[in-house]
Amino acid sequence: MRDVRPDHLRQVRKPLPEWRRPRGHGGDTRHTTGRMLGVLGLAACGLVVAQALNARKPRPRAEPRAAAAAKVRHGAMALAGSVAADSLMEHFRGGYCNDAMYLAPAVAGTALAATAVRPPATPRDDAVARDVAHAASLVTGTAGLAFHVWNIGKRPGGLTSMNNLFYAAPVGAPGGLAASGLYGLAEGRLRRAPIMPPRVEGRLLAGLTALNLLATSAEAGLLHFRGAFQNPFMFVPVTAPPAAALVLGAAAADPAAGLRRLARAACWTTAAAGAAGVAFHAWGVHRNHGGWRNWRQNLIQGPPVAAPPAFVGLGLAGLGALDLMDIRDEGRR
Amino acid sequence: MPLIEDLEPRARDGRAPDVFSHGDWVPMRCYGDAEEVDFVIVGTGAGGGTLAGKLAEAGFSVVAMDAGPFWRPLEDFASDERHQDKLYWLEDRLSEGDDPIALGSNNSGCAVGGSTVHYQMVALRFRPEWFRSRSLLGYGHDWPVDWRRMWQCYDEVEEALKIAGPVRYPWGPKRGRYPYREHELNASAHVLARACEAMGVDWAACPNATVSAPHGKSPPCVYRGFCKIGCATNAKQSTLNTFVPRALAAGAEIRDLATVTRIETGRDGRAAGVLYHRDGEWRRQKARNVVVAGYSIETPRLLLNSASPAHPGGLANSSGLVGKNLMVHANHAVWGRFEEEIRWYKGPPSLAVCEHWNYADDHKDFFGGYAFMSQGPLPADFATTVADAEGIFGMELRQRMADYNHMAGLKIVGETMPQERNRVELADETDPLGVPRARVTYSMCDNDRALSDHSVRFMREAMAGAGGQQLFTSEGTAHLMGGCRMGFTPEDSVVDGDGRSWDVPNLWVCDGSLFPTGGGVNPSMTIMALAVHIADRIKTLAARGEV
Amino acid sequence: MTDRFDPPYPGYDILAKWDSVSFDDTTRRVYADRLKDVPERAFFSETEWRTLNAVCDRLIPQPDRPDPIPIAPWIDRALAENRTNGTRYTTMPQMREAWRTGLAAIEAEAQERHETAFSDLTAERQDALLRDVSNGDAEGPHWNGMPPHRFFRSVMLNEVVRIYYAHPAALSEIGFGGPAAPRGYVRLGADRMDPWEAPSDRRRR
């Protein structure tokens, strides 16, 4: 295409290197990036499955409570990572018109850092710092919930308008940050000497996780409803996690071995669904007009690639809870 | 923009353009001119395109012709208003009367897909009472189709087009959920919401014929805002990318750039086929049935031009009503400047709607109703509105246009009364193919003016309530309806409730010209619903051996 | 009305997006034609051409542009190709004839009032004359029965305005966000804009 722009504009940009130049027709969607991301998502999914298979192999165990704590930490990490990336992008969409909007990605990023580093086997000075970071997540997440509700309320149509629930500040999203904070605090507790039997810790954590699963599933349900469940796989996050919540809740109420086994499977399924969700969402971005080549629009407008890992986090947290509940059984054996 | 006479037909030799591609094709079954097909359909817009798809899927042999070209939106549609004039019927038509109407870009398409290629995608249903407006509301004429039947057909059309609509629609009887969810409201739609809340009336996200999630090969809408001049992404659901591909897949032949100038009749008085002009040649297609779907001007024009010794006043015109009772929609608007930047060029132009005055019967000094929608005209479109409405030009106009990003507006689709004096006739002058041009006569009646005045008063107050300043009003018309009314008897109508001519049993009409009354909503959904209804009736009648 | 124009979005140029996903090849092609292939006069006579250019200069004055957006050449091109707009009011002659009659009538008006060619009148006199035509206050035998205001608003002003606001420079001037394919927009709310749109109105910053 001949460049007919005025000279001063023509000098703005050097010609693109061959590999970056648009090929063929301008409006075409590009497949390559979409496929690559799809593959990456599938790989992530595979990792979760591999870890699941791995976990079934007998191996020398660390102290069981510490092992459970590690799972909970990984759960908190996945949640924090998901919120950090998602809020960074969504608040960018919102133009950071309110300074408080910087808080969410900043706090989530801190929480991510606090959970990403493996803590020393015995609690040291940094334990308090970690607790502070997680408490900040909890507070920010909770405040965020309130802020989002207030924000919707002041728009035309208010809280009863589906348009606001679909497209304004997402009601439930900051809950992910609060949950990450809760799991981070729980992990800190698990690193310290128990003040209650691990079984009870496990049941509390399982109950909390069941509630979180329901809430997150409701959020996914709302947004997938907005997408009219146009792809049958969109039903997965509104079926698998509630099922896991049900079984996990039941196991919390009555930690029978059978229920715990079932809950374990359900939690692995939820985590795997979360990982697969990334791949599906990457595919969804590609299906938007212009595909990944139009990423500046489609990453924001397409399905949020960063959202599904929340289910990975909750699945891992549920597994941590189940590990804790297993501890008594092992003691009896 | 290419001149239409320089274009060559694309759908031929066993293939038709794949509208979802750059330069690709889909296979197409082709029929010979001498092969007597079950149906030849003249026009592939909301009526003809839909009917072609439905009839082909029912197993009939179908050839559908359109005077316009067969575009591939991805490669043919530019983000440019002037270039996209190629979508309109720009051949001269004569316009007269007390209130002569503008024709072309605001109401007539010329392409495979017809006006649905450039419609505003507002996907509203008729109010149920309008199908019996004479009996229940005291004006106009009753329709020979029951509203419940029509609502079934709306369901089918909305499903086929994956209409993106609100979860709760505030007006009318309970309806099933729209297939897709409403779009995010843009700032212009929020102005309508605020305006309605200021006036204490309901508002809703406007059901739109552009997808809010992927559907088949259609990606979700990217909110580029060029919808009205041709969607270059295929998110918009027109017959071009819905029923026409379905028709092709089911074995119909689409002939683009094929202008039908005459319906030929046999010695028995029945339609025998059509005479058409394509690629520089005059040809005849034989058919067992002829369906006219050229919309309210070309349909009457074709019928009138098909006069013969057996039908001296024009085909299907024993009632003398062919071309009569032409209706438009009043299209008055109130515009205002807002302190904030609205940037109404983003998103489908009408994302919010108020149908209050379609459903309220009290405190009205007029018959009929109107809906109003939020607006998002492109720059040249709005500049001509300002220039025409305010009569300004020069630097003043440029300064006014400097506020383009601060503007918002409400525009009505207002019902006008059917009047026999509003009509389509053949002029003495002929077009380049030698066919007499259409002469369109239109005059408003007192009720039409009362309705428009009411709407302007209401919208001015509403816009002021929403914070609009420097308000001004524009007038105009949109859409066409009527001209070949459907009805109950051969005396009061051109066709029966199945769209079938009273005079010529194998001649059908399937487009907006069937409307006995206009309603206060955009007509496309109703035209498509009628096409679904007629297709079903043809299937039933054919099964009984009555076609 | 002065001929000063206060640009709300100085420095914003939609052509800067030429290489981006806001442009597709189809639009690039159309814009390239518009910017580079400005047609030569083919339809109007030299006199008509002079009047037309003078009229265009008043309908859309562009003293602020060193390189004004060409308008008359596109009117000429459309008429040379015998394009119409789908509507001929029965009070109006065919499009070509309407333009010829209209321009001749404006010229005759100028001669009658000031004994000077329209193109040689002062801007004030040109504006006053055009305003009278627009308001229908310029009836006369040289209009050949064509209603002056109908010609002025429905044909002449309409076409001039459509041509001007189809040009990228005019679109940039008003802060239009397009072209927009394949990339559209994400931020739809009031006072919200994507990085590829014009930054907010200078007069409000």
Automatic annotation (TrEMBL), chain A:
The keyword Membrane belongs to this UniProt entry's keyword annotation: yes
Positions of transmembrane segments: 132-153, 165-185, 233-253, 265-285, 305-325
Residue ranges, compositional bias (Basic and acidic residues): 1-31
Chain positions covered by the region annotation Disordered: 1-32
Domain of life: Bacteria
Keywords: Membrane, Transmembrane, Transmembrane helix
Name recorded for this polypeptide: Uncharacterized protein
Organism: Tranquillimonas alkanivorans
Automatic annotation (TrEMBL), chain B:
Record-linked Gene3D superfamilies: FAD/NAD(P)-binding domain
Keyword Aminoacyl-tRNA synthetase belongs to the record: no
One Pfam family cited in the UniProt record for this chain: GMC_oxred_N
Domain of life: Bacteria
Residue ranges of every copy of the Glucose-methanol-choline oxidoreductase N-terminal domain listed in the record: 146-330
Keyword Zinc-finger attached: no
Domain Glucose-methanol-choline oxidoreductase C-terminal: 418-531
Gene Ontology MF term list: flavin adenine dinucleotide binding; oxidoreductase activity, acting on CH-OH group of donors
Cross-referenced InterPro entries: FAD/NAD-bd_sf (IPR036188), GMC_OxRdtase_N (IPR000172), GMC_OxRtase_C (IPR007867)
Keywords in alphabetical order: FAD, Flavoprotein, Oxidoreductase
Record-stated family: Belongs to the GMC oxidoreductase family.
Name of the protein in its database record: Choline dehydrogenase
Lineage: Bacteria, Pseudomonadati, Pseudomonadota, Alphaproteobacteria, Rhodobacterales
From TrEMBL, chain C:
Name of the protein: Gluconate 2-dehydrogenase subunit 3
Pfam families associated with the record: Gluconate_2-dh3
Entries under InterPro entries matching the protein: Gluconate_2DH_su3
